[in-house]
From TrEMBL, chain A:
Entry-linked Gene3D superfamilies: YVTN repeat-like/Quinoprotein amine dehydrogenase (2.130.10.10)
UniProt keyword annotation of Magnesium present: no
Name of the molecule in the record: Probable cytosolic iron-sulfur protein assembly protein 1
PROSITE patterns to which the protein is assigned, alphabetical: WD_REPEATS_1 (PS00678), WD_REPEATS_2 (PS50082), WD_REPEATS_REGION (PS50294)
Keywords attached to this entry: Repeat, WD repeat
WD repeats: 11-42, 60-92, 105-138, 150-181, 194-226, 252-284, 312-343
Family under the similarity heading: Belongs to the WD repeat CIA1 family.
From TrEMBL, chain B:
Entry protein name: Cytosolic Fe-S cluster assembly factor NARFL-like protein
Protein family: Belongs to the NARF family.
Family matches, as Pfam families: Fe_hyd_lg_C, Fe_hyd_SSU
Record keywords: 4Fe-4S, Iron, Iron-sulfur, Metal-binding
Record carries keyword 4Fe-4S: yes
The keyword Signal is assigned to this record: no
Spans annotated as Disordered: 175-201
Source organism (scientific name): Glomus cerebriforme
Amino acid sequence: MSPNLEQIAELKGHIDRVWSVAWSPTGNVLASCGGDKTVRLWVPTSENGSSEWTCTHVLEGAHKRTIRSVTWSPDGRQLATASFDALTGIWERGEDGDYECVATLEGHENETKSVAWSSSGSLLATCGRDKSVWIWEVAQDNDFECLSVLQEHTQDVKMVIWHPTDELLVSASYDDTIKIWRDDDDDWYCSDTLEGHESTVWAIDFDKTGDYLVSASDDKTLKFWKSFPNNNQEGMDTYRVHPKWKCVHTLSGQHSRCVYSVSWSKVHGLIASGSGDNVIRVFEQDKSQNDTDSPNFSLVASVSSAHGVADVNCIQWYPTEKHSNWLATAGDDGIVRIWRFVE
Amino acid sequence: MSVILKDLNDYIAPSQACIKPVEVKKTNDDKNNVIKIDDSGGYYEVSQEGIETKLQTAQITLDDCLACSGCITSAESVLITMQSREELYNVLKLNKEAIDQNNLDQKKTVVISMAPQSIASIAAKYDLTPLQVAKRLTHFFKSLGVHYVFDTSFSRDFSLLESAREFVERYQLYQEKQQKKPPQDNNIKSTKIKRNGTSENDGAMNEAKLPMLASACPGWICYAEKTHGFILPYISQTKSPQQIMGSVVKDHLANKLGIKPNNIYHVGVMMCFDKKLEASRPDFFNDYYQVRDVDCVITTGEVDKMFEENNFDIKISEESLLDSFIKTSQEGALLRSSGSSSGGYLEFILEYAARELFNITGVDVEKEQGVIVKIGRNKDFKEVTLEIDGKPVLKFASAYGFRNIQNLVRKIKSSNSPYHYVEVMACPSGCINGGGQLKPDETIPMKDWISQVNNIYRNVNSLSPEKNDVVLNLYSEWLDGINSEKSKKLLRTQYHAVEITLVNPLAVKW
């Protein structure tokens, strides 16, 4: 039997579309957020029976508009939310067990779209409709210092993510590009611009090594990018002696509409994508290949109408070995779904 | 136009395309005419007879820029077209024609006021001293028909003295208020403030908000007015050096020469594009004479272009004597004020306040004497503390660049600012690195270039504004003395929150 995806749970509770889902670093809790201005935290009711889930917390009151994305700090103690009300919220679990908003970061002029914690937890990045990417340093007492405001994208910035180990930031934008940002003596600058997508880049993810990136775009493709070291044999130009990113593979013909989200499992290396044609697809790198400079990827499983007639807004692999074949998706139907990838 | 300001990071950049509608004025009321748009986006009205008339698109003025909440600072293309060297050339040309036709009452007196940062930038590029640049620029401008060439180091001394007095007033009022009243919530929401100046904002001084924030940077002022109305009462009401020069030229010089302000054409040579916007503020417009205090601002880069256009080689140019309103020593050497190349506000105000408020003399911030200087998380944030018996009594800071402004604004908003005064500048590295300055050859890293221009600026000897006799004399001769009504009227200004208007949704790019 060929591999497939089977739905194991439907998480209902949001009263508007769900924009984003995020597993806590250990995978014990799933956070979701959306148009109803809340974040909901979900856990399976029992260890074995994974079909029943409970919403343990509803985080609300801090944002006046849609919460576009949610993310956990690397230590799992805090959550960050990016909202259309221009604020970024920082949430922490208090002694009474409830989560409260302990800080709001102001600065973006209007809608913030995405927020991400660096691997060490010491930096936070945000981006938004004002075309800017902000880097914040986590100071004491839930205070955040703005380290940099990067304004080189020419349009709305859709998503920011950090490298799995290094202080290297990546942003994806409506200007069809991906930008790589580095720090040099406290000055953040763009070290590379990845051009190739023909429309908005909605989502990006690293592989577990951080040497490869995958991007999802409104041009209906997924692109794979590899970082080539400075002394590479291709003799490509480099900027400030940093690696240069180059597109090594394009997956097209797999989605008939905009690809909104992509997740690259850090455990087993499968790539899952979700799109505006309501489809989830899972891709695998061809193992027979030895040439890592031109990897090939092929479709191994898919689900159509994953959220009925609704868009799949976000997709994320379970982060650890324990349930590494689980996927969470968020849809315009207001439902969060958990899937199991069966080989 | 964006070529000019490309590759800048951490500056306050316009965040969206200009949203001012382009209105199409039809040539007549004939309803049967149609509008045609050609490939290049030009609009034509086509009458029934098939005659095409090109339609004018609406002009966007700097006034529109100031009143609009669309982008945080100025759309540079508008700045460049509204105030340009072409305007200056045009005035000079009309002057020549007036002389040729013996229409001397049509002739305008043309005055240039140069920023010392612009002089330093030109000095760096052409390997000259600032004094050589000042004398050669004087020669250059006068050869084009300009009558007077001044510098804004001169008017900045007024700005420093007024800022320091304003700080001491605020500090004393603040202390009184603290003693009288229980502590209050500082998060007073900004209220709509009318442009005619009759609103409650006139009483802003009575609020005596601390920290006092520097007012010389128009990029910062514009940003504060458009996005942080609550912070306006914190901003010093003292005019910038450029605008004080405007008062000197259009009030004092006009009276002295016996000519009307509208017969003087006053041009600023500045390190910064936003100085054009500052010159256009309605607050600096003389309603009676229908004229601005500063008629036109051109940047350092535009002056460099003027050299080319006039085949002027500054390396081998003759030198002219300097005019009177330039800050010079008795021997004729250029002078500056001590401290940062953004004007030395922090340094002078701290030294003045230490003496006036705590009787501590001999503080020299530039030499780090009598104060504790701490560089912040990045080089564009600096803290300077004056201590008495190990206890801080005055805490000043300089915050340059967008990121540091952000942190400062958030601290003040949450009442967590420990500062009494902050020298705020929108550009990283401050005014010496203004957007209008000359760029280095590609071989020279930007950091090295900025530090070179900075060194040239700071190698000029300094003299305290309190020892500038020309300025002190003008206080009595022109302003009816220190703290007079006239000095308040001519040396201070006010700020206005821009109302957020609903953005045209069609112009927004998501």
